[in-house]
């Protein structure tokens, strides 16, 4: 019996499974070890390179898209036509940041694009600048589809085409008295701008824009009286003419003020050119009674004081003078 039990116990022991040397148990061939380490390094490098390529590709795509938007805007600025509309459809979810720089002769319009790549936003500090464009929009617009339309800014001569950028998904409800204050908007046939006569008819979630007096509670209030203002929350911006009224409605306050200062720089420069033209035709026995030097000074003062009170009066006088003049300047 004892021998039988001993034989059983010995049968469970296998020297090949439990070597006496621990060193032999942990030994890995050098070739295998080198292959594992080399493979890991190559894998890390491949992931890094792929990440950098995706990042670089995202930045290039953002810059290209920014330039393409600038090109798309060109048809909106051709000739003296007004109220032109275009539809901007981008291939990926996109954030558009339109900003303004006052430095230089006429300042700069800047566009920065960020697109969603593999579920994440591609960030870049690069932007594309345009010295001759004036875009009015909210900051950091997000979407794939946008409406763009333009209106000429005459002050008193044509100064520039103002361009408005609105996401398709954002709805504006204009609450108006019967009249033609938004006829140009209605004629654009923009699906995301609704004209109603009472606020109760505005769809849920829309941005309510009031053109009526009283105590109506609206997101944006427009005063078209003697002192023209657009008020968003507690911030009010003054305007003159429909083009600047829509600019104040559809843009951030800071960018609006910057763009208006850019426009006043252009007014000053154009007034100087028309003043030279007026002096030239005066030598041809064609009398012109314009006060363009005053307009130049008012435009310079606007950049400092930011008030339409003086310059608007000068603009109206020049507009009447040109209308009644035998030799018109524009």
Write the layout of secondary structure elements.
Layout: H1 2-11, H2 22-26, H3 30-73, E1 85-101, E2 108-117, E3 120-121, E4 128-130, E5 135-136, E6 141-154, E7 158-167, E8 172-175, H4 183-187, E9 193-196, E10 207-210, E11 220-223, E12 229-232, E13 235-238, H5 241-250, H6 253-282, H7 292-305, H8 309-324
Parallel strand pairs: 5-7, 8-9, 8-10, 10-11
Antiparallel strand pairs: 1-2, 1-6, 2-3, 2-4, 6-7, 11-12, 12-13
Helix pairs in contact: 6-7, 7-8
Descriptive notes:
This protein has a domain of 64 residues. It is globular and about 95 Å long. With 330 residues, the protein is an alpha/beta fold. Helix 6 runs antiparallel to helix 7 and helix 7 packs antiparallel against helix 8. Strands 1, 2, 3, 4, 5, 6 and 7 form a seven-stranded mixed beta sheet that branches. It starts with a helix and ends in a 6-residue tail after the last helix. The chain is 41% helix and 25% strand.
Number of helices: 8
Query: Approximately what portion of the residues adopt beta-strand conformation?
Result: 15-25%
Order of helices and strands: HHHEEEEEEEEHEEEEEHHHH
Low-confidence stretches: 4-15, 20-26, 46-66, 75-81
On the 0 to 100 scale, the average pLDDT is: 76
Distance between the termini: 127 Å
Structural class: alpha/beta
Evaluate the radius of gyration. Answer: 34 Å
List keywords for this structure.
six-stranded mixed beta sheet; alpha/beta; 330 residues; globular
